[in-house]
Task: structure prediction
Amino acid sequence: MSVNKVQPKDGLNKAFLKVMPNREKLEGFTQGLVRLIDQVNEAESEEFHKNLLSDFLKATYYSPQYFINTKGRNDLVIHSGKTAKTAVGVIIETKRPTNQGEMPTVDNLNTKALQELVLYFLRERITERNIEVKHLVITNVYEWFIFDAKLFDALFAQDRDLMRQFKEFERGKLSGDKTDFFYREIAKPAIARVTNQIQFIHFDLREYGTVLKKKNNNSQLTALYKLLSPDHLLKLPFANDSNRLNKPFYHELLYIIGLAETKHKGKKLIGRVKEGDRREGSLIENAISRLESFGKLSQVTNLAEFGESEEDQLF
Result:
């Protein structure tokens, strides 16, 4: 078994894993999975199964908040908002269930599906200059391989040789201009160089067959429910996320300290409240008052490092 394979629950934010899902939504997810698997028809095309996946994702989580459709050669993409004008957040490469030759396996990732995903990621990340891609997915309905876009950025977008070849390929300056040429001659060697570094989440819905048939056994599907949710795939903040800044608390904290947030050239800056709005009881103003009263600035060396004026130095 690949050492880079991560189980669904181990691929989730630990705080998010502890959040109890809504019972009705989890039940809807379970029913959606049952319908999805029941609708698989191995005699049908890739397009047929792509539409099944799209319908499942829309009905379970994403519609109408997040737009799902094709984009260019991408089989499916999940946008970060309600329309196609919003940034692509997830790229999904789909295969029909019988297309085993192009699907990766746990022990062999370097197949056409992943090679395609590398090209689509580079086009989105480099050509479209989209820095908001969060995850990339390969699935044939049954099997799912989920990759963090940060990993793709580090292994592929930062690979100088790959980037040079990608740009030359896109300009038509190489000996081949077909996508199969890119997959075979460019993506495949690039993936081979870093295969042992490609971590991925993997699961197979066929292994959940018994669980799906049982009633009131949804707890075993909680990890999958969370894994395919916008919260995970689009990396949305959630209520119990310890890394998420609580905005009311943040603004109250600034008020108590005596600071204010402003914007300058698109950047958020935190500084002293402007004159006229300052409150003597705030921590900053109280501290400045005491520094002045006791003449503490005279004890500080290299005052120029803290500003040109005495007011700046005190702050």
In short: The mean pLDDT is 90. The CA atoms of residues 275 and 285 lie 11 Å apart.
